[in-house]
Specification:
alpha/beta, 6 helices, binds the ligand Nc1nc2c(c(=O)[nH]1)N(C=O)[C@@H](CNc1ccc(C(=O)N[C@@H](CCC(=O)O)C(=O)O)cc1)CN2, binds adenosine-5'-triphosphate
């Protein structure tokens, strides 16, 4: 792990450091982070996860979503996700959004594995277990999002985050590709990409970063919401 040590010590030259790393080193570096941070998340009791998820949802609704609703003077279009393994659950926020008339979309991995589509979910029963058991909208009971509709916010799941916009997911690159696909659309500038996680998933270290990584607008945890430049 010589290179990984170098990255931690020379925070400011992360990009330069990474460019000297070969593919194998990058992958194992991410693998190590994924193992370590999944264990942190798994160690929380189901009760604590539920409690902290509720706190996170209340905070995000209060500080961001309700403000956005007022500012735009219309119901919102939000991309969320069905909770999986020990992830932070956005379900309390999703329920609130449904009550407020917002539209909720969720990702479905495309059958070929190349990327994902967003489908409108209107009830919990719209989610069914998909590839790897990941909850996904049932294609028989949900419709595909019309790409012309602006996405006001995307709640981005992940295994680890830091306070400078770094994020590590499960390694499919799905959210990175979703982000890339949204760039250049007429509403892409206004979409808020918000990391959604427990505070214990936020690390002080620079996480392995690559040019294809999505640019988060902010990060919401059960402790606070922060914004990146
Ligand atoms: N709730 C939720 N939904 C989501 C995501 C997510 O992170 N959370 N995704 C975010 O992108 C996408 C799913 N991405 C995933 C990618 C890999 C694995 C997974 O289980 N990978 C195996 C290894 C597979 C292999 O190497 O062949 C594993 O971790 O054991 C799960 C989800 C879309 N939906
Ligand atoms: N815009 C893109 N176009 C094509 N492939 C991409 C794109 N972004 C990422 N990928 C592919 O996805 C792979 C995995 O990326 P990465 O390790 O950053 O995933 P991740 O962000 O942890 O996962 P996820 O976004 O699914 O939670 C990359 O090696 C790359 O091949």
């Amino acid at each position: 792990m010589k290179n990984a040590k170098m990255k931690v010590d020379f925070h400011g030259i992360l990009e330069v450091g990474m460019s000297f790393m070969d593919e194998e080193q990058r992958t194992s570096d991410k693998g190590e982070w994924r193992r370590r941070m999944t264990a942190v998340r798994d160690a929380m009791s189901p009760d604590e996860r539920e409690q902290r998820s509720l706190q996170l949802c209340v905070l995000l609704e209060l500080e961001v979503i309700s403000v956005l609703r007022k500012r735009l003077e219309r119901p919102l279009n939000i991309c969320a996700y069905g909770p999986f393994r020990s992830e932070a659950s956005a379900l309390p926020l999703i329920n609130k959004c449904w009550k407020m008339g917002d539209q909720i979309f969720a990702p479905r991995i495309l059958p070929g594995g190349e990327g994902m589509e967003l489908r409108k979910v209107e009830a919990l029963s719209n989610w069914i277990p998909g590839k790897w058991g990941v909850p996904e909208p049932d294609p028989l009971h949900t419709s595909i999002r019309n790409g012309m509709q602006p996405l006001d916010a995307v709640l981005v799941p992940g295994i680890a985050f830091n306070e400078i916009g770094g994020r590590l997911g499960y390694g499919g690159g799905y959210y990175d590709r979703l982000y890339a696909g949204e760039q250049g659309t007429n509403h892409s500038e206004t979409t808020l990409w918000i990391g959604f996680a427990f505070a214990s998933q936020v690390v002080r270290d620079p996480l392995p970063s690559e040019p294809h990584d999505l640019r988060l607008s902010g990060l919401a945890t059960d402790e606070k919401v922060i914004w990146f430049n």
